[in-house]
Design a protein that fits this description.
single chain; about 300 residues; 3-stranded antiparallel sheet; aminoacyl-trna synthetase; 3-stranded parallel sheet; ATP-binding; 12 strands; Glutamyl-Q tRNA(Asp) synthetase
Length: about 300
């Protein structure tokens, strides 16, 4: 199994398939609009397919009606998925079957370590349960081994951020693919879904850059070539907090779609012309797709909200 591949990317000849995968724990806000818009523009600029997937596995965090509200908001902003909207909670059996296969193959194992057990290790799992051969139990997590690759390094070339590398055994250790509460972890579900949907390009916020080596490890274990990646900078408040539902960022107002979409194009450093201000969303999206150039974005993980281009 290859551990290091600076050329991790899909075959450029494959038809482009991208996606936006929100979590329905709340309504869309300006930060999530930027993520949706970047993925939409990238797909349409390449004459590709743009999908939407609801990543709702953390059921206790889901907000009633949020999934429907997200789709309605995207539609108000002119962004319509080109295919069925997948819902992760409907794919639980597939995830569980894959987890069992990874356990049977010796790539994963049960773990009963608590947070207090792991607190001295500062986020790097020490391998406590790796060779304990714990039996299945509902309150046990499942971890994926990171010590069984050639040298543990996973590298890729991000289309904006450039070269990124992580040595999983020493920087993270064996990571969780099913939590102790039984919820399937994001890392496994997102890889399985992207494989199943044939996703060739992932455009998402730079807060997920650190997750990518874990996902590359899973792609290698599953024997599938990973997609190309583009991690766009997050817009953060002065205090360094990203715009988020948890921190009470204002939901998007569909009645202000034209004005807000223009601001989003500007916030993605696409320099929309003044005459586009207030134009219908479809017209703005058509211009954005035709002129999309992610290289205009600054090569950074975060941008202060008050330093965005003025409109």
């Amino acid at each position: 199994m290859p551990a290091t591949s600076p050329a991790y990317s899909q075959d450029a000849a494959l038809p482009y398939i991208g996606r936006f995968a929100p979590t329905p724990s709340g309504y869309l806000h300006f930060g999530s609009l930027l993520a949706a818009l970047a993925s939409y523009l990238d797909a349409h600029h390449r004459q590709g397919t743009w999908l939407v997937r609801m990543e709702d596995l953390d059921l206790p965090r889901n907000k009633r009606g949020a999934a429907e509200h997200i789709l309605a908001t995207l539609a108000a902003f002119g962004m319509h998925p080109q295919g069925e909207v997948w819902v992760q909670s409907e794919r639980q059996l597939l995830y569980q079957q894959q987890i069992q296969a990874l356990i049977d193959q010796g790539h994963a194992y049960y773990c009963d370590c608590s947070r207090s057990d792991l607190s001295p290790y500062q986020g790097i799992y020490p391998g406590t349960c790796r060779d304990r051969n714990l039996p299945p139990a509902k309150d046990h997590a499942v971890r994926i081994r990171t010590d069984n690759s050639v040298d543990g390094h996973y590298s890729f070339i991000d289309r904006l951020q450039g070269h990124y590398s992580q040595h999983l055994p020493s920087e993270l250790g064996d990571f969780v693919i099913r939590r102790r509460d039984g919820i399937v972890a994001y890392q496994l579900a997102v890889v399985m879904d992207d494989i199943a949907q044939g996703v060739t390009d992932v455009v998402r916020g730079a807060d997920l850059l650190d997750s990518t080596p874990r996902q590359l490890h899973l792609y290698a274990l599953l024997g599938v070539r990973p997609p190309r990646y583009l991690h766009t900078p997050l817009v953060v408040r002065q205090q360094g907090e990203k715009l988020s539902k948890r921190l009470g960022s204002k939901p998007l107002d569909p009645a202000l779609a034209s004005v807000t979409l223009y601001k989003a194009l500007a916030a993605l450093y696409q320099a929309p012309p003044a005459e586009l201000h207030g134009a219908p969303p479809a017209e703005q999206l058509a211009w954005g797709a035709a002129h999309w150039d992610p290289s205009r974005l600054p090569v950074t993980r975060e941008i202060l909200q008050d330093q965005l281009p003025a409109v």
